[in-house]
Write a structure and sequence with these properties.
Elements: H1 7-21, H2 30-43, H3 49-58, H4 60-70, H5 82-94, E1 101-105, H6 112-125, E2 134-140, H7 143-151, E3 153-155, H8 164-170, E4 171-173, E5 181-184, H9 186-189, E6 192-196, E7 209-214, H10 223-235, E8 237-245, E9 259-262, E10 265-267
Parallel strand pairs: 1-2, 1-7, 2-6, 7-8
Antiparallel strand pairs: 3-5, 4-5, 8-10, 9-10
Helix pairs in contact: 3-4, 5-6
The protein binds S-adenosylmethionine.
């Protein structure tokens, strides 16, 4: 018989996930929490979700597994394509200033966003020895997603919005056992560094960025968490840099440090371009 998650148990996981990741689970997510954690409860042969909660408060490795399971990781190549047109124009305008161009995918999930950025930069700036220097950093709280991202191996359907020329230029088509898969070209993969960063905590030293993508993650945060996260990231944004949020998200009422340039696209004042 299936073990059910009761309201007090849901409250325990809600508090835990909010405390760690800043993610706000609504009561409507009860079925989702139960569904996602059921296999772990079963795996350990536990009698209740309360027992699993106790286990993850005692074991850091299993706590990471629970956080991985409770985050929503939906993403795909060229998601919200207007942002990549904007990035192309931004990179082209910056081409001559000689400073390395750094772009951060700050909730990169399984990596499609970071690789899309890298494809646009490689196409705009080049990736040979004479090209202006550029790099992409992808970070996420989920170690499972970061592992997938580093591999750069995807089911072909995730690339449905990837323009054909990019697919041919920057991806290898799987054959034999890998049929139906695409692999991001190793040369492009070398341009993208993935690491674990929890946006709900003070940031490690990540350096300065010209563009930050913070897309489709603020939707899980409460206003005060959004504010804290955005302020931390703005601190890492160079003057004149771009800050992009998901099409259904806004920074209105969250910060006054950025200027709205277009819906979901913001700029940090200064920098002369
Ligand atoms: C829906 S995906 C968005 C992926 C991509 N940015 C996009 O727009 O396609 C949200 C990602 O945010 C990550 N996330 C949630 N809370 C986080 C936190 N506190 N710190 C870092 N990443 C977080 C999740 O693990 C998940 O991979």
């Amino acid at each position: 018989m299936d073990i059910t998650l009761d309201d007090t148990e849901l409250a325990l996981f809600k508090k835990l996930l909010y405390g760690i990741a800043g993610i706000h689970l609504t009561p409507a997510k009860k079925a989702l929490v139960q569904g996602r954690l059921a296999k772990r409860v079963k795996h350990y042969g536990l009698a209740s979700y309360r027992d699993y909660h106790r286990l993850i408060t005692e074991r850091e490795d299993e706590l990471q597994v629970a956080v991985d399971l409770l985050t929503t990781n939906e993403t795909y190549f060229f998601r919200e394509a207007k942002h990549f047109e904007w990035l192309r124009a931004f990179a082209a305008a910056r081409r001559r200033n000689g400073r390395p161009l750094r772009v951060w995918s700050a909730a990169s999930s399984s990596g499609e966003e970071a690789y899309t950025i890298a494809m646009v930069l490689a196409d705009t700036l080049g990736d040979g020895p004479m090209a202006p220097p550029w790099e992409v950093v992808g970070t996420d709280i989920s170690t499972r997603m970061l592992e997938q991202a580093r591999k750069g191996l995807y089911d072909q359907h995730r690339a449905r919005d990837l323009p054909r020329p990019y697919l041919h230029k920057y991806c290898l088509k799987g054959v034999g056992g890998q049929a139906g898969k695409i692999l991001v070209d190793p040369a492009l993969r070398r341009r993208v560094q993935f690491s674990q960063v929890n946006l709900n905590e003070p940031l490690p030293d990540v350096g300065g960025f010209d563009v930050i993508f913070l897309r489709n993650v603020m939707i899980y945060f409460q206003p005060e968490t959004k504010q804290r996260v955005v302020e931390r990231l703005i601190h890492c944004l160079r003057p004149g840099g771009g800050f992009l949020v998901g099409h259904s998200e806004t920074l209105s009422g969250i910060t006054r440090s950025l200027t709205a340039e277009a819906p979901s696209i913001y700029r940090k004042p200064g920098g002369g371009s």
